[in-house]
Structures are given as C-alpha cells and as structure tokens.
Amino acid sequence: MTIATLNQDCHCTTLDAAALQQAWHDGVGLGSDAASFFAPYGVYLDTAQVQALQQAVTVLHRVLQRPAVIDAVAAEQGRGLPRFGTQGVCMGYDFHFDGSTPRLIEINTNAGGMLLNALLLAHQQVCCDFMQGFSADAFGASAPGTRLLQMFREEWAAAGRSGEPRRIAIVDERPAQQFLYPEFLLFRKLFESAGWQAVICDPQELVREGGRLLVQGEPVDMVYNRLTDFALLEPAQARLREAWLAGEAVVTPDPWHHALQADKRNLVHFADTEWLAAHGASAEERALLAQVVPPTRRVAAQNADELWAQRKQLFFKPLRGFGSRAAYRGDKLTKSVWADIVASHDYVAQAYAPPGTRRVRVDGELRDMKFDIRCYAYRGEILLLAARVYQGQTTNMRTQGGGFAPVFAPALPALQGAA
Q1: The three-state (H, E, C) secondary structure of 261-280, written as one string
Q2: Maximal C-alpha separation, the chain
Q3: What is the CA radius of gyration of the chain?
Q4: Per-residue pLDDT, 418
Q5: DSSP assignment string, 147-214
Q6: pLDDT tens digit string along 16-64?
Q7: Of 382, 415, 404, 331, which is closest to residue 61 (Cα–Cα)?
C-alpha cells in the first residue's frame, strides 16, 4: 500500500485518548480536554520524504550561516541588532509536499507545540497490520526532555555563560490566555526537573534593577521567549528588549534570530539562485533550494498589476506575520484587501504550494483535510516531526477532527539520535 493510499484510505484511530488525557492531567494539571489540541489519527510520509526534509533543513541552516548571507541580512533587516552567539531554540520549518519534494512555506523562530507533540507521540498505538514497520519517532523524539534541556544548555553556553541557568522565565503576553498555555506548563515542569527555577510571566512583570532582569523580585538568568512581537519593539516589551541589549539575561529566541532565519524577506533570497551564488551558496545548495523554496517576490507598487494578474497562483504573507494571520490565498483576495496589501509595503507573494490531503472519518462522515509538516529543529538538525491537520484557507488548530497529528514513516535507524 502506498503512502498516498494510506493518507486517503486509512481511517484508523491511532491515539490512545484515555491515556493521553491522564498524562495531560498529570503533566499539565488542567481540567481541559487534551483532545482539543490533537487529531486522533496520523499522517503518513515515506522514507524519501523524511530524508528530503532533513536535507532541506540542513541546507537551509547551512546557507544561513554563510558570512556573506549573515552580512546581507544584517544590512537589510538586522541593523543594530547584537549577536550573542546563540541560535534560537525550537526552530520550526513548515513544509508542504509536491510528491517527494518538500516545499518550504515558512520558517518560525518560536514555533509552538514541540512538547505537546512529544506528549502526543507517547500515546500512539498500532491500529492495523499496515502500521507494522512504521514509526512516529523517526528522529528519536520519544525521550525529548533530555534533548530539549540540552538545547537550552547549549544556548546558555553559546552566550558565554558558565555553569547552568538558575532561573528561567517563559515569557508571553497574557500567558494564561494563550492557546498553547498548557505547553508553557509542560516547559516549566521540564525546567524544574533539571533543578532550574521556572516562572511563566507576562513581559510587563519583568523589572530591570542593578544590572539584572527580575521577575517577582528574583533574578532571571534566561528567557524562553514565546512573544510574537519578534523585534521586541512594542512598549510592553521595552524592559525585556533593554535587558537583552545589555546582555543582562540570555534571551532565546531573540530579534536577531528572527531577522536572520524567519523574516519572510529571506524567502525572496532563498528563491533567487543568482543572489545565493553571489552570497556564497554552493551549486549543490542552490540546486536544492531551487526545488524546495517556491518562487517568492516582494509586493511593491511597481509589480502590483503583474502580481494581481497572477494572484490565483500566489499566496500573500506579511513579512513578520505568524500563525497564518493576515495571510491570503490569491484567489480569495478582494480588490480592497489587495489595495491594503500594496499600500502596506509589508508583504511577499509566494508561488502557491498546495498542502497535503488526509481523508479521515469524523462523527461517521468522511472528510478531506489539509495538512502541513512542521520540523522542530536546532542547529539544522530535526528533533521532532509533526503534522498540523486543518480545513480552510490557512492553517488553523481548531478544526473538528484536526489539530497536531503524529507523522508515521518507515523506521529509519540512521536518523535515530541524529540531533
């Protein structure tokens, strides 16, 4: 049976929902329904697709470490941003698939969901004979705690700190109201298991005093930044930005990580083989990125008429957007929205790469769902794969029968522990 057939015709439930709910209660301590975050079934990839994902992530990361690329990004969108040697934790690379070729949709610095998906993977069950030989853990994510903690330790050391952080703050605006707040609780529990004090807080709870960053009157050594004000420019983030600029705490991910890796202007460069050649990318790297990165252009008054005429083949995204907010399928655009996009000088137009499809049974009814693949990675190595299953114009996590889903693929021993 082919992978396409499994995604089309396998309607099995792989999730042990009762066990997951118990782990959810034990790990998160909330009375909410864990199932609201997760799809009850998996998405299937084949060996070539999984290997192509790792190759794509490796090359994207390697190109972003080229000195000429770093200098160009710094001149374009990273002016005045300090670099503290860190890489940014929990990077997310989001892909659709065109056959066996992954198509990069975007890169995210504070990609949410890694610990939620690790919890999900721990509560999968073999549903039928077709599952034999498949694994939802191609990259060794079944014991993610050690690897996640090591990632934060490496960030700490890369910033020139010795020993280990004593206190880490998980920071987001109104954290208890965030959709992924349960994951903040899981991270706090993970940090505490390493002997670190951990606190979840709003950025306005942070205080600078005596060359230190404080929360609740106690020093903060490290900030796990979950804010979507990526440049930390809003007034509520002022104290955090000042502390970061002064090196008073290790902040990860930080504004430089986003400028270098996640600003969508970079997609324009990744899709431009001449720009890549001029900035040190090898012929092999350029060839791979030409396949992986859909052609992408800045939206400007000069090309507005041309892009409008081609809109049905394009997807429009704000440069610093996230979570599909203010993103538009070209064939859904109205002229008034288009006028706003052009006037904003803040969008890219990316060639539309269709998402994968997964047919599932929800309440006894067959439904065709869409999915993308998220690679959680650090320093160019994939730590965990997850799918996001949804319906609608853009990715969302609230579709009935949708949510995070495990990615099942043939076991790949060579990839175990690769990160």
Answers
A1: HCCCHHHHHHCCHHHHHHCC
A2: 65
A3: 21
A4: 38
A5: HHHHHHHHHHHHTT--S--SEEEEE-SSGGGSTTHHHHHHHHHHHHHTT-EEEEE-GGGEEEETTEEE
A6: 888 888 888 887 777 677 878 899 899 999 999 999 999 999 999 999 9
A7: 382
Which amino acid, one-letter code, is at 389?
A: V
Q: What letter would DSSP give residue 32? A: S
Work out the number of other CB atoms within 10 angstroms of the CB of residue 238: 15
Residue 36 has what pLDDT? 82
Q: Report pLDDT digits (tens) over 364-418.
A: 889 899 999 999 999 999 999 999 999 876 666 677 788 999 999 886 554 443 3
Which token pair is 46? 């084949």
CA-based torsion, 153, 241, 204, 177: positive or negative: negative
Q: Which residue has the tokens 């309440």?
A: 363
How many other CB atoms sit within 10 Å of the CB of residue 79? Answer: 8
- HEC letters along 182-198: HHHHHHHHHHHHCCCEE
pLDDT at 6: 86
Residue stretches of the chain with pLDDT short of 50: 414-419
Count H helices and E strands in the chain, helices first. 14, 20
| Partner residues linked to 201 by β-bridges | 171
Token pair listed for 170: 């998980």
Q: Residue 185: CA atoms inside 13 Å, Cβ hemisphere, count?
A: 16
Q: Distance (Å, rounded) from C-alpha 280 to C-alpha 283?
A: 9
* DSSP per residue, 388-405: EEE-SSS--S-STT-EEE
- Domain regions of the chain by residue span: 3-266+354-415
Burial class (CB in 10 A: 0-12, 13-18, 19+), 176: exposed
Helix 67-76, helix 47-64: angle, nearest 10: 70
pLDDT at 416: 40
CB 394 within 8 A of CB 327: yes
Q: How far is the C-alpha of 317 from the C-alpha of 270, rounded, in Å?
A: 16
pTM to 2 decimals? Answer: 0.92
**pLDDT in the model for residue 419:** 34
Tokens 């070539």 appear where? 48
